[in-house]
Amino acid sequence: MHRGAKMTADSSSTLQDIFKAITLNSSESDVEKKIVIPLLLTLGYTSADWQTQVVILQSKLDFLVGQSDSALITTPYLIIEVKAPNKNIAHSVWQINNYMRRAGAVLGLLTNGYDFCILYNYEEKITQIVEYSQATLIHQYKIFHKILSKKTYLHYTATLYKNQQQIRLHFLKLISQTVQQEHMLGLFNKAKTSPTQIQQPSEKEILVPETKEERKSMIITVFNNKGGVGKTTTTINLAAALNKLGKRVLLIDIDAQANLTTGLGIDPLEDVEQQGKKDITHLLLEPRTKLEDVVITKQWGELELHVVPSHIRLGRMETTLNQTVDSDRLLAKKLKKHDYDYVLIDPPPSFGKVNGISLMASSAILIPTQLSAYAIRALEYVLDRTNEVEQLKDEPLPILGIAVSMYDQKSSNYNKSMVVRLFEILEKSGGSNKAELFPESTWIPRLNIVSISQDKGYPLYQGEFDERLASQEKEAAQKVLERYTNLASHLIKITTGE
Questions:
Q1: How many C-beta atoms surround the C-beta of residue 381 within 10 A?
Q2: DSSP string covering 49-79
């Protein structure tokens, strides 16, 4: 049995032997018996250190590692969730996140025997620490061992126990001082303000450290004159993915239908008009109204988006906008100074006045499209409109790329034919050197969960915390979110080089 914290010369061969015990056709039970238990033994645990199929608050955990000391108020150290080798563990992250929150576990390990994801729980915010394949786990086993070994677990619990005793001593002193007073209330007031043993930064401070460097901002219009191509849905979930990757994002709804506004849980009548708040019409038509006067902050846990809402009255403003001096640059002027990494503008699917206002304010365009004949045909008109706006701006208006949404994963032959047609349209319109099709890993599949989340008024990421969603819906959401994360990462790469 392996008990040392350091990797021995035999560790590599031991791991290789363990991993040979399963194939892609193995069951979840095989992974538990032939991979997880042998790994726990190499980490220094004995069978007395773990429990299997433990029920905690109606959740059944595959493995709970680390027994609670009766003298120590503590939570489980490690829980392990196991999947069959043919399952993509990325689609089960929300499941183990939920288990870790319910159990209060410090660490989580999600594996299918081929991939291993370690997660950390801080104030119920679950962060992925690292993910290994079998090959990288063998190569970096020393790190894996250092994080999950029994030695680390024992050190953690010993430190926790010591801090607990210090807190009890401090509490005893407060009691001793308080019992001499007439009222006990001071005890609890003092207890609330007592110093903690360790001051830890928040997760956002760890992952997104503040810098004094000036932000490099991109103002992007998500633009297609063909309706029904997933434009608003793409805008909402791309913004959420960018924020999850540490970017500060502003969304501007400049469509009178206000689909983006309502898709983020903001009712233009109840939450804006009746509350005396301002919307996009005020920003465009009132010279003294500033950007910060109309922004609404929406927050779902760690996810935070800033929104300029729209209103149905915008549809009646066409004449007023046309009569306003230099109206095409109204939004551009209001966006000269802001504190966002990305500003995403969602205009209507048309070539109307507000569409031109959006494009004039933008530093680039993102084109969402379906892989369908009519949607692809519309690209020609989008390119023509882009050229017109470039002449008005007297500066380039680059197209960042073409993002595919709502595509049918089962119709591979049809999708290929549509991609060929897309490139033909680009060639014909002179856009082959101006617009690129984003890689297939960023294509968003057509799944019901996408529209369900928008109808509920939240980005897909919030689905993790929606108890009304079935497990199948949550798994589908994670499949789509994987693509949105890829889309956001690709966008960051081509706009900043990160």
A1: 14
A2: GEEEEEEETTEEEEEEESPPPTTS----SEE
Q: What is the mean pLDDT of residues 131-142?
A: 93
Strands (E), 136-277: 218-222, 249-253
**Contact indicator for 487, 437 with CB cutoff of 8 Å:** no
How far is Cα 148 from Cα 123, in angstroms, rounded to an integer? Answer: 20
Q: How many CB atoms are closer than 10 A to CB 225? A: 19
Please choose, from the candidates 346, 333, 315, the residue with its C-alpha nearest in 3D space to the C-alpha of residue 253. 346
Mean pLDDT of 346-366: 90
| DSSP of 200-256 | ---HHHHHS----SPP--EEEEE--SSSSSSHHHHHHHHHHHHHHTT--EEEEE--T
CA–CA distance, 250 with 403 (Å, rounded to integer): 20
Average pLDDT over every residue of 286-308: 93
- From the list 103, 104, 128, the residue with the least C-alpha distance to 118 is 128
CB within 8 Å of 444: residues ≥ 6 apart:
230, 234, 237, 403, 404, 405, 406, 407, 450, 480, 483, 484, 487
Q: pLDDT tens for residues 80-122? A: 999 999 999 999 999 999 999 888 889 999 999 999 999 999 8
151: Cα separation from own chain's centroid: 33
Quick one: DSSP state of residue 441?
Answer: G
- Checking DSSP bridges between strand 107-111 and strand 78-82, what pairing results, if any? parallel
* One-letter identity of residue 237: N
Identify which of 305, 345, 230 has the alpha carbon closest to the alpha carbon of residue 459.
305
Mean pLDDT of 407-436: 87
| Lookup: tokens for 107 | 């660490």
- pLDDT: is 70 or 86 the higher one? 86
Nearest to 85 by CA among 14, 133, 22, 132: 22
Burial of 245 (0-12, 13-18, 19+ CB in 10 A): middle
> Quick check: 284 and 317 in contact, CB under 8 A?
yes
Domains present along the chain, CATH in parentheses: 11-155 (3.90.1570.30), 218-496 (3.40.50.300)
Q: Worst-scoring range by mean pLDDT, 55-64, 268-277, 466-475?
A: 55-64
Residue showing tokens 């590692």:
65
Backbone angles phi, psi at 390, to 5 degrees: -60, -40
Which amino acid is it at 65? V
DSSP 8-state assignment for residue 437: B
Give this prediction's pTM. Answer: 0.75
Cross-strand partners of 445:
407
Residue with tokens 């897309």: 422
